Amino acid sequence: xxxxxxxxxxxxxxxxxxxxxxxxxxxxxxxxxxxxxxxxxxxxxxxxxxxxxxxxxxxxxxxxxxxxxxxxxxxxxxxxxxxxxxxxxxxxxxxxxxxxxxxxxxxxxxxxxxxxxxxxxxxxxxxxxxxxxxxxxxxxxxxxxxxxxxxxxxxxxxxxxxxxxxxxxxxxxxxxxxxxxxxxxxxxxxxxxxxxxxxxxxxxxxxxxxxxxxxxxxxxxxxxxxxxxxxxxxxxxxxxxx
Amino acid sequence: xxxxxxxxxxxxxxxxxxxxxxxxxxxxxxxxxxxxxxxxxxxxxxxxxxxxxxxxxxxxxxxxxxxxxxxxxxxxxxxxxxxxxxxxxxxxxxxxxxxxxxxxxxxxxxxxxxxxxxxxxxxxxxxxxxxxxxxxxxxxxxxxxxxxxxxxxxxxxxxxxxxxxxxxxxxxxxxxxxxxxxxxxxxxxxxxxxxxxxxxxxxxxxxxxxxxxxxxxxxxxxxxxxxxxxxxxxxxxxxxxxxxxxxxxxxxxxxxxxxxxxxxxxxxxxxxxxxxxxxxxxxxxxxxxxxxxxxxxxxxxxxxxxxxxxxxxxxxxxxxxxxxxxxxxxxxxxxxxxxxxxxxxxxxxxxxxxxxxxxxxxxxxxxxxxxxxxxx
Lengths: 242, 376
What we know:
The complex is a heterodimer. By secondary structure, chain A is α/β, with parallel strands linked by helices.
């Protein structure tokens, strides 16, 4: 089965929303720790981050949000905080790593921390269409469990179509790291797009649209996630080509 | 391998999408600076297009008790030191085969310099500018439009330089393969701080020679304003090895990233920034749009820590007073940014002082006159 990853920004309602996403069929939940100047984000997640910060969701509150989410979803659902280096610079890398794990985090994504930096924070690495083969190899060697494949050059946010650059990038990564699970994210919003991406990779990450739907509450989010689930479940789980 | 450049400061805190472009830029820059034809082309443009060398002016009526000289970057084409950097990066962008330029601007001086070089070389130009700054610096918006640049307003957050920079970087992430990001100050991910610093070093090297020629000795102190810090770093580079010369940077009191900031990451580099204890960026406040920025170049943070340079604050009121004083006593209308350096030069405990007059003040007239009570 292909994996479905849903991203939400840490806010007071997020534990309940994350549980709804899992009920709708999410395998993994990414929990965004908001930063005031998030360079990789499009308007939806940027605005959601501003709102969360306005509601006092600082690092400590976000770690508590992860802890509550862990309680609600149980021990088996991977929870992955996603944030920016500025947060860890202020909190301390090792302290963050320890406290996030203690709160229930399974791994980490740090969007603007290159693979060369702070390897003591074992984390999911990202590759992009612009990545050289050398950098892809480095990312595959150091990633924690799966690799985040950024489908396009650009920021997060829904697009009309799945980027045509995903296919060639996945081919390059597969050649360098056969068997490594690849999850695609950025610009995937609809069940059709999720299905289309899932034909190429082992998992799909949905962010901005999930954040938008989550504003309508847990029921709406559960339904939306279920529609994504149905979309990718229609894709046959082909063996990973070697 | 770590890419930190200035002790603990600098680095590349950007999404993976940009790392290959930064590698390409660093390699292109390293090759260009060793290439005599690149240096010749820059020198030719500097002398036949930009108006280098800029003169030194002794301002005896402005500072009657001292010998204060101004390095007249306000007389450079487009009216500020920003052109030194824009010309260099535009020539480099052409070498790298980039036809589209994206830039951020605060006061509009860098936007105008960028629009100018793009017009000169036939490059497509998009400039991001906070809507609050577009209001404060309207003449520069009009100049950019005339020069053929597209000015894109940034309507969120503080609507100033911080958000304009973030949006320019987001544009670059999106169009990285066709676009050169022509950053306006010695900030951002490596190699930008070192590249911009080196392109601005012409200010300090020229000024040192000129000063020695007229005075026969070095100044006691060199003073320059610091927003992101490009005119000051360019000026300081001429004197950093002269240990007897004090290097004095002047920050806006409400945007003192060096004076009151803490170590953190903003716009791709670790430096001294205005942020809270969680690393969230704080708002800066300055009457001068060019200094209204919560970050500063990483080399300044390094110079501060090492004690080689000192950084002093200047209030809006002090800057306005110096702005008016230079106009009334010398017939030179300085940029509000440069007026911060002028204010501290007056009360510094040094007689022989060299100030970088980084830009001219035409763009600031409406704002300054309103505050000074000339206009309604």
